[in-house]
Design goal:
Number of strands: 2
Radius of gyration: 11 Å
Shape: flat
Order of helices and strands: EEH
Distance between the termini: 21 Å
């Protein structure tokens, strides 16, 4: 796990290990993360 900007942001990422790919589905502040449903982003 990495500390990004003083741990000010959250990321929702989908991983495809077979293809060795990662897709960032959401990047934002903690307050913005509270407003989303991470399971459906």
């Amino acid at each position: 796990m990495e500390n990004v900007s003083g741990n000010s942001y959250r990321f929702v990422v989908t991983m495809n290990y077979a293809a060795q790919l990662a897709e960032i589905r959401f990047a934002g502040a903690h307050s913005a993360y509270d407003d989303i449903d991470a399971a459906t982003v």
